Amino acid sequence: MVSKNKTGLPAALLLLPLGLLTGVARADYGYNLPEPAATLTQEIFDLHMLTTIVGTIIMVIVTAMIVYALYAFRHDKGAVPDQEFHNSWFGQWAWVLVPVIVLGIDLSIASSASSTLSSVEDRSKADVTVKVIGSQWKWTYEYMDDGIKVVSNLKKLEPTDPLYLRDVDDPLVLPTGQRVRFLLTSSDVLHNWGIAEIVPKKINIPGYINETWTHITKEGTYRGQCYENCGAGHAFMPAVVRAVSPAEYQQWKTERKTQHAQAAAEASSDKVWAKEELMAKGQEVYTKNCLACHQAQGQGIPGVFPALAGGKITNGAGAAADHINIVVKGKTGTAMAAWGPQLNDLDIAAVVTFERNSWGNTAGDVVQPKDIKAAR
């Protein structure tokens, strides 16, 4: 029922101008699906347009018939109900003709839909295979054939920035013109990964592998989101794909492999790191991986994520071993993930040192990579 005020006008009519005035605060309003940039999403888009056109034609015909009947057979023209309609030719055969017409329309759409669904589930050989791991609250991409891993975290931007909550520090890079296979899973709770322009979304399930694919046709940057309500930081999980030419993709792979080799060699060396070096690197690791939960000043989120500033484990004498153990292996029954499989010894040593010597914490100790290696 529509409520009315004292003037008798429906409340909805009075609220309409307010809705129009808030236009500047609304998100991007589109009247159709995003423009596809891959063969698979093009099929989905074409199916969507087919059903939309068929539905619109049916709506126009039915509406026109109703309007015509209301006008031509209105009471003031002396129209009377036809009590023998069911005995007429049309009255008898309509029960057959109408279902046949409806079934024909359904089958014409179903044929295209069946073809599109078969494409979505296609398991043909791929040129590139990427494992997409969702975790609270970031995406990790593992290039299965090249040993490259990309950890994609939310980029910290001001709310006024057009890309606020939509950009990441390290996007997934993919080549155009090649078939890319995605293996989807999760390290904690349900997530849902997809990019509307290039690949349909699918659920990331802990302990289970889902699969989808893409064949990108246009270079560009494409943005998506976790489409599963995965917890308090759900909004902090944008997904960004940068589609580049095959030549640029090869160059990017070479550079990444070189960087990974240098980082691995550095982390596995027996070097004893100075506290200042560990603090500087630890701040980078913390900002990239820990800040979303434990916050910029280590204050945490009351009732959700514990504070590291002033915490027992970050200040207690002799608590370094427990601190290292939680970071490396996680904590069962909480949102604290195991970072051992995700970070190298140097990264974990640096971030533990940083947490024990920041925000007024007074532990004062320094953790070296060899301590992490021993704790694994």
UniProtKB/TrEMBL annotation:
UniProt domain Cytochrome oxidase subunit II copper A binding: residue ranges: 125-255
Catalytic activity: 4 Fe(II)-[cytochrome c] + O2 + 8 H(+)(in) = 4 Fe(III)-[cytochrome c] + 2 H2O + 4 H(+)(out)
Domain of life, source organism: Bacteria
Segments traversing the membrane: 51-73, 93-113
Domain named Cytochrome oxidase subunit II transmembrane region profile: residues: 25-121
SUPFAM superfamilies: Cupredoxins, Cytochrome c, Cytochrome c oxidase subunit II-like, transmembrane region
EC number: 7.1.1.9
Cofactor note as given: Binds a copper A center.
Ranges where the Cytochrome c domain occurs: 277-359
Subcellular location as annotated: Cell membrane; Membrane
Cofactor list: Cu cation
Family that this chain belongs to: Belongs to the cytochrome c oxidase subunit 2 family.
This protein's name: Cytochrome c oxidase subunit 2
Underlying gene: coxB
